[in-house]
Amino acid sequence: MSVSFDFSVKRLARLALVASLPALLSSAAVADEGEEEHFDIGVWNDGGVLTTGGWDHDTESLEVANLRVYEAHFGELPGFPDSIDEPGIGGVAAELGLPEGATLSLNMLSGLRIWNGDGFDPVFNSTMFVDYGPASMNSQSGGFIDFLISDDYDLHPIYSIESGSDAGSYLLEFNVSMAGFETSDSFWIAFNYGLDDEDFEASVEWVEGNLVPAPGALGLLMMAGLATRRRRS
């Protein structure tokens, strides 16, 4: 009963954060001016297969055709050290070949893992949550959250970690699915929770080198061609 009560209290706190999302996004937009570029999860239609890339809302284009590792840094939302609203999920439906009004599902595939300096270990003493409005999933039970695809969408779920968790690089695995399309390959989000930036980047490089298959020569040519077409359009 105490565990259930604890989860309920934390759920209410996260709902309060989600409710204040518009104001937080406005503050974050101002704070990000002049800082390094980051990409939202841009889901696009690759011949009937959902593929994840890097969407840039400043240029309104898919800057990276195939992207399967994203980064997030806790502590960027003022007053909420254990929550972050990045990466978002966004794009222009017509540009990405997705039907307006369709439902895109973000699916959590595996439990939480933490960087050990040479790989990632399962985490049993902490939990991460993903909330969007009334919908929620967590790293203990997994689950999915549905998003509505509109003409030009910029959706930001709230990712939260239990307060007092060990400092480190935390890893979650996802894919996306939609009726009428083949489900995407896995992609990962690495979350920096108080870890040195150099150590965090080392963990991200490990994910890129060990969990993401390297594209073949044909795949590289296709990715380069798509990126060129997006920039010219």
Describe this structure in words.
The structure is a single chain. By secondary structure, the chain is α+β, with helices and mostly antiparallel strands. It has one domain (2-232). Helix content is 27%, strand content 35%. A hairpin with a 2-residue loop joins β1 and β2.
Task: Give the SSE map.
Layout: H1 2-19, H2 21-32, E1 40-46, E2 49-56, E3 61-64, E4 69-73, E5 83-84, E6 89-92, H3 93-96, E7 103-108, E8 113-115, E9 120-122, E10 128-132, E11 135-138, E12 143-148, E13 152-155, E14 158-161, E15 168-177, E16 187-193, H4 197-210, H5 217-232
Parallel strand pairs: 4-16
Antiparallel strand pairs: 1-2, 2-3, 5-14, 6-13, 7-12, 7-15, 8-9, 8-15, 10-11, 10-14, 15-16
Keywords summarizing the entry:
233 residues, alpha+beta, seven-stranded mixed sheet, four-stranded antiparallel sheet, 16 strands, disordered N terminus
Return the domain count: 1
Order of helices and strands: HHEEEEEEHEEEEEEEEEEHH
For the largest beta-sheet, the strand count, sense and barrel status come to: 7 strands, mixed
**CA-CA gap between termini:** 57 Å
Summarize the structure.
This protein has 5 helices and 16 strands. The protein is of the alpha+beta class and 233 residues long.
